[in-house]
Amino acid sequence: MFQAEHQVPPSQRSIRAESPKMTTSRRGFNPTSRTRACHSSSRCSSSSARDNLRQKDRTENGLASWRAAARHVAIPVLLLLLGFGGAAAAATSGSADTRCDAGQFQCRDGGCILQAKMCDGRGDCKDGSDELDCDYRLCRAPHWFPCAQPHGACLAAELMCNGIDNCPGGEDELNCPSHPGLGFRLWDTPRRMRNCSEFEFMCQQDRTCIPADFMCDGRTDCGDRSDEVAGCEQAKATCSSSGHLCANGRCLRRKNWVCDGVDDCGDGSDERGCANLCQPEMGKFLCRNRETCLQLSEVCDGHSDCSDGSDETDLCHSKPDCDTKKCPPGAKCHMMPSGGAECHCPTGFRQAKFEDKCEDIDECQERDDLCSQGCENTSGGYRCVCDAGYLMASDNRTCRAIVHVSSDQQPLLLYTTQMTIMGMHLHENNLRNHIYPVAGNLSKVIGVAYDGSHIYWTNIQNEAESIVKANGDGSQAEILLTSGLDAPEDLAVDWLTQNIYFSDNIMRHIAVCSNDGLNCVVLITQDVHQPRSLAVWPQRGLMFWTDWGDKPMIGRASMDGSRSRPIVSENIHWPNGIALDMHQQRIYWVDAKLGSVQTVRPDGSGRRTVLDGMLKHPYGLAIFEDQLYWSDWATKSVHACHKFSGKDHRILAKDRTIYAVHIYHPAKQPNSTHGCENARCSHLCLLAEPEAGGHSCACPDGMILAPDMQRCMLMEKRQRLYVGLGQVLLELEHTAFGRHQVSKTYTLPCVINEMVYNRINGSLIIADNDQHLILEYQPEHQETSVLVRSNLGNVSALSFDHLSRNLYWADVERGVIELLSLQTRQRALIRFFPGQEWPIGLSVMPSEGYMYVVLKARRHRHIDRIPLSGKGEQVHVFEDDLGDDDIRLAADYETQTLFWSDSDLGRISYSSYKQPQSQTFRGKLRRPYSLALVHQDLFWSEMGSPRIFWTHKSNMGPRKMIDIMGSSDPDAILPFVPIAAPSRIPLAASSPAGRESHPCQQQNGGCSHICVGEGPYHSICLCPAGFVYQNAGNRSCVEALDCEFRCRSGECFTLNHRCNGRQDCVDNSDELDCDEQHRRKPKVQCSHRQFACHNGEQCVDKERRCDDRKDCRDQSDEQQCEKFDKTKKCHVHQHACDNGKCVDTSLVCDGTNDCGDNSDEAMCDSAVGCEAGMFQCGSGSCIAGSWECDGRIDCSDGSDEHDKCAHRSCPPDMHRCQLGQCLERSLVCDGHNDCGDKSDELNCNLDTSTVNISCPEDQYQCTSNLKICLPSNVRCNGTTECPRGEDEADCGDVCSIYEFKCRSGRQCIRREFRCDGQKDCGDGSDELSCDQERSNHNQSQIHPWSTPLHQPCRPHLFDCQDGECVDMSRVCNKFADCSNGHDEGPKCATACTTESGRPFCQHKCRASPAGAVCSCFDGYRLDADHKSCSDIDECQEQQPCAQLCENTLGGYQCQCHADFMLRQDRISCKSLQSNGATLLFSTFNEVRNMSEHPVMLGVAWSANDSRITGFDVDMHRQMGYFSSEDEGTLYQIDLQKKVVVRALGLPTPTKVSLDWATGNVYVLSGAQEIHACNFEARMCGRIVRVKSPKHLKHLAVDGYNAWIFYIAIRTKGYGRTSSEIHMARLDGSHREMLMQKTESFMIVLTTDPHQQMLYYVDLHSRTLERISYRSNSGPQRRPEIMLQKTNALMQPSGISLYENNVFIVNLGSVEAVQCALYGSRMCHNIPLNVLNAQDILVTGKSRQPQRSSHPCEHAHCHGLCLQANYGYECMCGNRVAAEGERCPHGAFNEVVLQAGSSNSLELGREQEHAGNHWLMALLVLAAGSLIAGLGYMYYEYRKRGHKDLNINLHFQNPLATLGGPSTKAFLEHERAEPGVGFTPGSTETGSSRGSNDTFTTTSASSQQFSVPNAFQRLLRSRQTTSGDPMAQELLLESPRESNLHSLDGGRQGGGGGRQMPNILVEGVNDDSAHAVGQFG
Questions:
Q1: Which of 95, 1020, 1157, 1708 falls 20 to 30 Å from 1617 in CA-CA distance?
Q2: H-assigned helices in 1258-1366
Q3: 1675 by DSSP, 3-state: which?
Q4: Is 691 helix (H, G, I), strand (E, B) or coil?
Q5: How big is the CA angle at 838 (ends 837 and 844), to the nearest 5 degrees?
Q6: Around Cβ 132, how many Cβ atoms within 10 Å?
């Protein structure tokens, strides 16, 4: 600041230095000579540069460590080093009032030492500060890198090898190591081949580029001096035109440097003959030939000093002479050769023009380049002064800023490169300025400012225009301003008030905001076209700006926007950067077109050019001390020069294209008193010029200034935008100009899926599709109430009618639109869509009386208009050019406009809803979703994005963006929210409370229940479901059950009012025709086994239909008989149409002609009853009784879900989760999140005293069972070992079916973001292998947000052939809609007719300029002639039906099997026995049960601590079966009692499948055998065995058709596998390979017995496929892919099929997936909340269809009875037995359950009796042959290494044991074994099935014996290993004896071996386990 001396307080008075004019020599004055000398000497010394390069080469190997270490150097540490930053320069910083001399270093304590002693290893300062931070001062590694020039910059190490030349010579990019994965880089060569620009000179040796201005300037810039040798030769051609060519060959770039008193040429040639420097007033004389300048004392002294003698002439002696000449006082007389005696005033004076005296020259007024800052005139001289914060340099003219030790006192230069903000510490003379990044990874940063504590910058990134504020080190960035910006190019901070001023190039204004961005106001708009740079002068209340628009200018105004005017408007073209020199009161700017730096005074006077011809394309500008700093786009560098002369031009830094330049120092922002200090402005105080009052108050947008000129008054209440993020509700105050901020955040007890604003009471109405609730939330009171809780599916849209106070919603799952009256809380069904359409969008127009509804069909989407009451015509409004995904609506009642978002097409469209005409609002969007109108702006969210976009609803403004949340995004308004943004973000907008009146607001419009508007002045009453109008007035409603008779006048009564002798009807119609003759006979009720005569009075048997006998009195039973098929029988639940069709009764009387002859809709008014077990809808349809009150609408009128349906709430014995589901009490507080929201684990007082187990550090402890300690490597190994799978929790995201999993495994993104050109994954894996990804898609598919060169027009649009598309309806309309007129032509009139007048097209024709465009009706396609149409076989091509499909002309008809009926959509089938169908899934030791309405989760059964490896259920017998591989046992459990009934022993049983017809259970045993087990027979038998290298993976049984299927995996080399699917009869016979597939890995199977389809999953291709197994299927025996490469098939472990939906569970996923296997095959998730669900099953009875009988019911098998090809087959153990043959005792597998055990799964231990031991010993001694055999076995046992027979039993969880068999039975069983003995009295050989796995032997003898344990184990070991491994080499072994041949010495495998479960034996050798558990 410049002030007069008397105005400055003594404490702040400037330091002044007088400069007597007489003692100051012009010849010696050069403000930059010392700097130039320093530069010249340093440039001449190239050895130091070479040394630096050598040092860099030596440290090349450590470069990576340099950069790695540099990344850990925090900016605060860097700022701390600034305290010593000035010490690196020759003249260093000091205290505020002292300064060391040049060549000295200033210590922290103020002392001065020699510069050479700094960092010399010895502490020379008393405080040792000269040895601190020497790396920074000397620019040493590893944190800093010096550029090669001695004066060059010092770079932060992270700038090295970044691909950008930051050093002028580019040495920071030399010898860079290649980055891993990038390979060779072009800039890695030691000497890069670079092409210099036209503004640069290329050095000859190293081919580096230097600015052309440095060529031939007397200073060596190239290492080989080529710039001063060859460069001078090059400069001669151009120097004379723009500069001055010195005598020594140098080139001065500016001619005004000649005769300026400074020897710029070096030889003085530029200062010779300069008349302006050799004048008598200066005491000098210029010779005539201009070669010599003499002192006046040398003139006329009698001696010729000039070579031409011009100093000595005759006039030297002329008269009068000096003796007689009279001079003014102070002047001296000199004899001059040209005039004789002349008077000359002293230096600093001149002779007055009109007075004879010497007057003082005011140099300060005549020249402004004398002093850096202030200039004070003195008598005969002047003196320079410095403002506060500066010190006078030794030249008494230059002011230097006081550089304190503290970091905030350091001069700092900031510049922007769009992507980064760079900082540069300015040292004195710009020697070794330190350069480092301040903020990086930015988008389009242009302007930058710094106020000493915060950095501010502007961002002009499209849609993200903003002003950002951050700490000085770039951290904690926050957006200050978003709304109202379009192109904010520059900004300036008023450091007195902290207000932020900025220019907007597109909005064409200059504006100001408060420092928090909350209050903003536009200041200047008049004559502002394209403002760019901005500078403020708070002390004067002034601001200045550049404008390069239509009228280029330099503008000036008060900082409150007043007094605006241009100060420069002529000879100005592209003014860019502007800078203010407050100390000299000058404005500087750069002109990019003129390539100049110019300056002017604040009033517009004193304009001059500082530098021109040397600037190429300057942009930013800053000033500090006497130096100008600017950025140049052409050279991509920051330049500097002297502000007076333009000399000392040098490059300080190079980078990308550099934009703004800003310099901060405290002296540049001095504090002072100002007008806003005591002002009482309510919002914004702006400084102004003192002439304008010094300050003024301002108000933000939407407010005006009160009469007191201080307060701001609100003109209208700001509207709010509500954003739903899961359970979090955000409230944002919207402003058209200012900062968006979250004013409030609410956490709700629900998930926000959809919401709408209630403008009546200011509440929000929310739909929660997880809990199936509609709630109302009051933000003001933070109260939540439930509006609707029953009969809700998936709410897809909400809309509120503020006139009639009704809430409307669309339910896409139930296919309905409903409303709720908020006045009466009554609910009504508006429209039910029973076909193939579902409502997905909704918006009401209360003033018009109708709504717009988006309907999703199978083939297309369309938008319809429906009356608000639902009564009236449904009109198709928009059905062309709509996408196939979500479409959401929003209505603007002010402009009567309807907006809709189309996420598939990526656009938002609009239309007047009164006169519909679709137009595009915004296109090329990224899946727009929810819409909301806030005041004049339209907001929308995008699917999968946490950003909100908006623009003006007139579409005139730019698109803006709000980043809602982001973990690391500084632009996010919630950058640190610990929740994940949902994929769909619903929006809602507040609106002012409406004051319109409406009939429904007055006593509910006179309605008893619901009042609905029909426009602004009319209303209609509606009745809830199950109610009808009571009378003709249609105002009151009664229950439909009470309306048995309706009067002609409209009233409703029960039948007892009919003909009761009293007048009940107004018109007495209840008493009319009551005589016997005219009495109306009651309608009879006929069953579906009967034919109802058309008159409704008679029923006849269907057998008597069309029997040529007229049984009906109206003869209707003999009509239409030609089409009646008497042999065809319809299902009991089907209606037999008159024309012979069978129609499900659910479709009768629903308003649709399903029969074709309309007979199913003919007799709907009659009281026809339904069959027993059926429910009759109000419309007359009959549905299964189990469908009533099941939570889904099945009747077309919704009457099956009436109000008397019990409310589905949690039973008292269950826990209700916060999300609404019900949980079994045993699962509460069990340490596992079973609810999914952790509400079941809240407030748990766990008793930890009983469990105090700690695992070693190298082990992992399961939280679900603290007793389990596992090796640490089980954590995140891909398989679950803990009971609830917690060892796989938090191991990376398991993506949902709608997402793509990033390669890192820690992130999931929307699948649509894959290969979209933007890296959404943190590791960028979503953009890898995109070529292959694109090849898998239709090449014609174009993303809506892409911008191809020529995008073809979509269907239903006409291509104008110039890139323009118009609607087909506008073609040939006699008006040119295409710009080129191609939509009209001469063929338009005749295209659709032939010459004969016949139609050209068979179906539909549309004329076009090119001729006729034919199209077909739905269900047809164009033939090859493009004229005729042929029928489409939808059944074959589209598979639209769930079960049976019949193709018809133009369509198709779906049918169901006997156990199902068609739903109202006429596509899907619903089971007649759907009640009780639940979802079962296994998780470790539990099988859990989940129901749907309501969602209830419980434990079906538990297996203690044993893992359940497979299970199945018998729905008809209510039995469950499960296997435990660890226990080697198969269990049968009573599902109702939850008690284990029986157990059978099997070696390593895994997967289980049930033959529900016979009750047989089929089990995978080991990996190579399948056993059939029957619990009634208490035995198992092997039916299938495969050889190595095959192993069995899964099996499935079709009990209805008697087939078993299994997967056999063949392992090849290098981990390659192939898969086979085999099928066989249930006895193992008639085996057939159904299919074989190489390079595959099939894992799971399931069957569809109705369709006879087998479904399987191939993990290798990630596909779900199916194949038919019908006999003689022929070409149908080909696999068909149903699902492919979806996240539903990540790692399936179980699948189940129910109602033609597949249920899939994946390992490691907390949710199951349900996918439809018909139509669109959509999938949705089912939360399970466990990570280790393995098997899944739906317990619907229709899964297990029953025959009237099965073959085994009539069989006489004593063992197993298996369904076979021709009936049945009997088996005893592993062998086939004759019917009636008794099985030996060794064939049984039963495990005895322990009686009386509290644990239902705990089995009895073996009973041991000592007496039996002795008896067994005697028997062994008596049987010699047996002893020999046992001895041999013992020998073999010891031979294999078993030493100790005393093996202890360990009952960890005893599930099975031997049960006390008799010795005799045991020995008989052993003798029956081949190779051991023989069976007495029998010649039959042993079974060919190998070892039989018997756990219990039962004796028929009365005498009981027991075998000792050790002896049993000995026998078991021998039996287990008796089968030679070679016997396993057979491919597939037959269950017949003749097909199995033992290769073990001719011995056949035994059939009675008893094998204990391995878990019971501790220390047993693994051989036995291998024999059982391994394959191969």
A1: 1708
A2: 1330-1335
A3: helix
A4: helix
A5: 115
A6: 18
Burial of 1011 (0-12, 13-18, 19+ CB in 10 A): buried
Instruction: Report the candidate in 1215, 1217, 1218, 1242 with the shortest Cα–Cα distance to residue 1226.
Output: 1215
Going from the C-alpha of 938 to that of each of 217, 753, 922, 1201, 1643, the distances in angstroms are 61, 20, 11, 39, 51
Task: Give the mean pLDDT of 875-897.
Answer: 92
Query: In sequence order, what DSSP letters do the residues of 474-487 get, joined into one string?
Result: S-S-EEEE-BT-S-
1697 beta partners: 1702
The label of the residue with tokens 């001069």 reads: 411
Give kind and range of the element (H or E) at residue 1828: helix 1824-1839
| Interatomic CA distance for residues 531 and 446, integer angstroms | 13
pLDDT of residue 1572: 96
C-alpha distance from residue 388 to each of 209, 374, 406 (Å): 42, 11, 18
> Residues near 778 by Cβ (< 8 Å), separated by ≥ 6?
761, 762, 763, 784
Q: Contact at 8 Å (CB) between 770 and 786? A: no
Would you say 749 and 727 are in contact if contact means Cβ atoms under 8 Å apart? yes
Residue holding tokens 């200039």? 375
φ, ψ of residue 380 to 5 degrees: the values are: 80, 10
786: its two tokens: 């439930």
Nearest of 526, 604, 614, 534 to residue 575 by alpha carbon: 534
**H/E/C letters for each residue in 1499-1535?**
EEEECCCCCCCEEEEECCCCEEEEEECCCCEEEEEEC
Q: Which residues, listed in sequence order, are joined to residue 211 by a DSSP beta bridge?
A: 200
Give backbone dihedrals phi and psi of 472, rounded to 5 degrees, phi first.
-60, -25
* DSSP per position, 1547-1611: SSEEEEEEETTTTEEEEEETTTEEEEEETTTTEEEEEEEE-TTEEEEEEEEETTTTEEEEEEEEE
pLDDT band at residue 1555 using 50, 70 and 90 as cut-offs: very high
DSSP string, 257-275: GTTSSS--SSSSGGGTT-G
- Cα gap 452→456, rounded to integer Å: 11
Integer-rounded Cα radius of gyration of the chain: 49
Which regions of 738-805 does DSSP assign to beta strands (E)? 741-747, 754-758, 763-768, 773-778, 783-788, 795-801
pLDDT tens string 1426-1463: 889 988 888 877 888 998 888 888 888 888 888 899 98
What pTM was estimated for this model as a whole?
0.53
Over residues 260-314, the pLDDT tens digits come to: 878 888 788 888 878 778 888 788 888 988 888 888 888 898 888 898 888 888 8
Using an 8 Å Cβ cutoff, are 619 and 592 in contact? Answer: yes
Q: How many CB atoms lie within 10 A of CB 9?
A: 8
Backbone φ and ψ for 480, nearest 5 degrees, come out as -90, -35
Distance CA 822, CA 798 (A): 14
> Do 1311 and 983 touch, CB atoms closer than 8 A?
no
Contact residues for 1954 (Cβ-Cβ < 8 A; gap 6+): 1545, 1786, 1858, 1893, 1894, 1895, 1897, 1912, 1915, 1916, 1919
Distance of CA 752 to CAs 227, 729, 965, Å?
A: 71, 8, 17
- Do 1700 and 1445 contact (CB within 8 A), yes or no? no
CA separation for the pair 1254, 1272 (Å, rounded): 14
Half-sphere CA count of 688, side-chain side, radius 13 A? 19
What tokens appear for 721 in the block?
């935008």
Residues 272, 244: Cα–Cα separation, whole Å: 13
- Mean pLDDT throughout 926-947? 92
CB 1301 within 8 A of CB 1316: no
d(CA 843, CA 853) in angstroms, rounded, equals 7
Between the two ends of the chain, the Cα-to-Cα distance in Å is 94
Residue in 1016, 1008, 1042 with CA at minimum distance from that of residue 826: 1008
Q: Is 358 helix (H, G, I), strand (E, B) or coil?
A: strand
